[in-house]
Amino acid sequence: MPKIEILSTVLSAKRVKLSKGWYKFSRNTLSVLGLITLIIIVLAAILAPYITPYPEHAGPYTNFRESGQPPNLKHLFGTDTVGRDVFSRVIFGYRFSLLLAVVVISLSVPPGIVLGLVAGYTRRRWLEVGIMRVTDIFLAVPPLVLALAITAMLSPKLLNQMMAISLMWWPWYSRLVYSITSSLRHEYFVHDAELTGARKGFILIRSILPNCVGPVLTKITLDMGFVITLGASLSFIGLGVQPPKPGLGTMVADGAKRLPAEWWMTIFPALAIVFVILSFNLIGDGLRDMFAVEEI
Amino acid sequence: MFKYIALRLFHSLFVLLGLSILIFFISRIMPGDPARVALGPLATEEQVQKLRVEMHLDKPFPVQYYFWLKSVLHGDLGRSLYTRRPVVTDLNEFLPATLELVLFSFLISLIFGQVTGVLAGYFRNSWFDGLSRMVSYIGVATPAFAVAIFLLLIFSHILGFTPAVGRISIALRPPPRVTGFIILDSLLAGQFKTALNGLKHIILPAASLAVAHIAQEGRVTRSSIVDNMQKDYVAAHVVHGIPTQSVMFKYLLKPSLIPTVSIMGLDFAFILANAFLVELVFMWPGFARYAVTVMLNKDLNAIVAVVLIVGVAFAIVNLIVDIVVSFLDPRIRLQRRGG
Amino acid sequence: MPKDNPLLEIKNLHVRFRVFEGELRVLNGVDLIIYEGEKVGLVGETGCGKTTTIKSVLRVLPSPPAKITAGEIFYRGKDLLKMKRREIPALRRGEISAIFQDPLTSLNPVFTVGHQLQDIIKYSLKQQGYDHVSKKEIRLRAAVLLKETGMPDQERILKSYPVQLSGGMRQRVCISEALRVTVRLLLADEPTTNLDVTIQDQILRRLDELVEKRGTSILLITHSLGVVRNLTHRVYIMYAGNIVETAGTKDLFTDPLHPYTGGLLKTVPKLTGEGVSEGIRGRIPNYLNPPQGCRFHPRCDHAMPICEKEKPPWFSTGDNHRVACFLYRG
Question: Considering only CA atoms, which of B255, B251, B265 is closest in space to residue B224?
Answer without folding.
Answer: B255
